[in-house]
Design goal:
Helix content of chain B: 25-40%
Radius of gyration of chain B: 23 Å
Number of strands of chain B: 24
Strand content of chain B: 15-25%
Shape of chain B: globular
Mean pLDDT of chain A: 97
Number of domains of chain B: 2
Mean pLDDT of chain B: 97
CATH class of the largest domain in chain B: Mainly Beta
Distance between the termini of chain A: 43 Å
Distance between the termini of chain B: 34 Å
Oligomer: heterodimer
Low-confidence stretches of chain B: none
Order of helices and strands of chain A: EEEH
Chain lengths: ~70, ~475
């Protein structure tokens, strides 16, 4: 299964607690998650790839060690 | 004595009694139904809370928009649901002065949040009917949690115990992302832990007493305890708290619906977002902290309380309207007793209006600069309007009158460049840097020249009498 945001491999995170009516998938590269009942359409502005992930802002900054 | 709600359920019962809660019994889809209903309800005048009882694939229930109207906000304070906003502001100020009211610390057996405990095979989806709030959100978010953490240098310092609202993204069955912006209290505590490469213990509490949720999103001082404010806002009645199971210094609301206990993983940052935020736009993906959940306690049949946020106004705007205005008012009033009221309801105080009776030329501008240096005003407030004491800052028609007739832009408009801003304000650039705008719409006071003094119009003598007559006639027509 392919992540709709970054194209990496995704896995099943969880199945519906009641009935077998949906699954939730999660990408282990960009951590986007979606339900099988959704049809994700990620706008271009929010698409990611490994290079973009490396350039994302860090909140909050990691402080130096004491 | 104000009516006090022990927990969320008592508040929801009060909302239902007053016609401010609707139950959706038909099956709904997690997306888009719950987010859409939250959007719709918060757009209505006096919109109700919406309780979903049957969500496809889930066991539990969801309530949204519990704080999402002035009627619900008034009921939160056990005031009549038609209480005007200004009167709610005045009453909040009265109760605020009862701080501190120490909470009751209950035993584990007395705390309803301990009815069930999960320590193995943790799966958030078994406890919470999680859903996507807005279409481009990067996942399912907890938007109304109260997060409890302490200062690692002084773990048992109750004053520095923090209860705050931070956005939380579900990353896995037992792991969530959390946003700790540098200006927020939790970031101070996190930095201390991360300097030692130690985890920061936290408890994420959901479905709280409505005033706990209210105080968690109120900007108070680092050493001011939120639970002691809850007691104050309950008109002097202490709130109930209990120790988390994993850490005796993490004190959580005793009767909340769900407690997620765990720790912030030190020195790790992972992709989080985007998330539709309170300024009405998405904040994009960033590398942010993650929390490992190690234990869940919850009430029987827990209710998942969450809020919709998007283009203002939404539930979050009601939640953080007066709780932003009151602390700013209190902080300003200390040095400027001439201040009459503060309306910081616009986008968490990014837009703020202050009414003041200036004593001398430049006085109003000085008070404005004081507000811009308060802990919340410094990063948040960007556009600040100062109006005379006889202008009600909660009445935007009056404020617009002051702007249109009191302001000479060439002298009354001041800009302060390269100042601290709110990073989620998309006009800040770089994110977190902004220009402050002060508009002094007060009437000039000496020694500032007022070359064209005017006589203000007053209501005709019998206006109040006729107000009553016309209202009575309208009531008779309705009957």
């Amino acid at each position: 299964m392919e992540c709709p945001r970054c194209g990496s491999a995704a896995r099943v995170m969880v199945k519906s607690p009641v009935g077998d009516v949906w699954e939730v998938y999660v990408c282990e590269t960009c951590w986007y998650s979606w339900r099988s009942t959704e049809t994700p359409v990620i706008i271009d502005k929010f698409k990611l790839d490994p290079a973009k992930i490396g350039e994302l802002g860090v909140i909050p900054a990691v402080p130096p060690l004491d | 004595m104000a009516r006090v709600y022990k927990d969320l359920r008592e508040f929801l019962a009060a909302l239902e009694e007053e016609g401010q809660l609707v139950r959706v019994k038909d099956e709904v889809m997690p997306e888009p139904d719950i987010g859409a209903a939250g959007r719709a309800a918060s757009r209505m005048t006096d919109g109700p809370a919406v309780l979903f009882e049957n969500i496809k694939g889930y066991k539990g229930t969801v309530v949204t928009n519990a704080h999402g109207s002035w009627a619900n906000h008034a009921l939160m304070m056990s005031m009549p649901k038609d209480t005007p906003t200004k009167e709610q502001f005045v009453e909040l100020n009265r109760r605020w002065d009862k701080f501190p009211v120490p909470p009751n610390v209950l035993s584990r057996e007395e705390a309803l949040c301990k009815q069930n405990t999960i320590t193995e095979d943790i799966n958030l989806f078994e406890v919470l009917p999680l859903y996507r709030i807005n279409e481009q959100d990067g996942g399912f978010f907890l938007s109304k949690a109260s997060v409890v953490s302490y200062d690692p240098d002084v773990p048992d310092d109750f004053d520095k115990l923090n209860v705050g609202t931070y956005r939380i993204q579900v990353k896995d069955k037992d792991r969530v992302g959390i946003q700790a912006l540098p200006m927020h209290d939790i970031a101070i505590q996190l930095a201390k832990a991360e300097r030692k490469n130690e985890p920061l213990p936290i408890a994420i509490t959901l479905g709280n007493n409505p005033l706990v949720t209210f105080m968690a999103s109120t900007p108070v001082g680092y050493a001011q305890n939120e639970y002691e404010f809850v007691g104050a806002l309950q008109d002097g009645v202490p709130t109930d708290i209990v120790a988390a199971d994993t850490d005796p210094n993490l004190l959580v609301p005793a009767h909340c619906e769900v407690v997620l206990e765990g720790y912030i993983i030190p020195r790790a940052r992972v992709v989080e977002g985007p998330f539709g935020e309170f300024p009405g736009s998405y904040s994009g993906a960033r590398l942010q902290c993650e929390v490992q959940i190690t234990r869940i306690t919850h009430r029987d049949n827990p209710i998942f309380e969450n809020l919709y946020l998007g283009m203002p106004w939404t539930e979050i705007d009601y939640l953080m309207a007066l709780n932003t205005s009151v602390p700013l008012y209190k902080q300003l009033k200390t040095d400027f007793p001439e201040v009459q009221a503060v309306n910081a309801m616009y986008t968490h105080g990014i837009g703020t209006i202050v009414s003041i009776k200036p004593r001398y030329g430049g006085h109003a501008k000085g008070a404005a600069m004081r507000l811009l240096s308060t802990p919340h005003g410094m990063p948040y407030t960007k556009i600040l309007i100062m109006v005379d004491d006889f202008v009600d800052p909660f009445n935007l028609e009056q404020v617009m009158w002051a702007l249109t007739t009191r302001v000479l832009p060439s002298k009354d408009v001041t800009m302060i460049e390269n100042a601290a801003g709110m990073p989620l304000d998309p006009s800040s650039y770089p994110a977190g840097m902004t220009t402050k705008l002060i508009i002094d719409a007060t009437t000039p006071v000496a020694p500032e020249p007022n070359p064209r003094p005017v006589e203000l119009l007053k209501d005709p003598v019998d206006t109040e009498k006729w107000n009553g007559i016309i209202r009575d006639m309208l009531k008779q027509m309705e009957a």
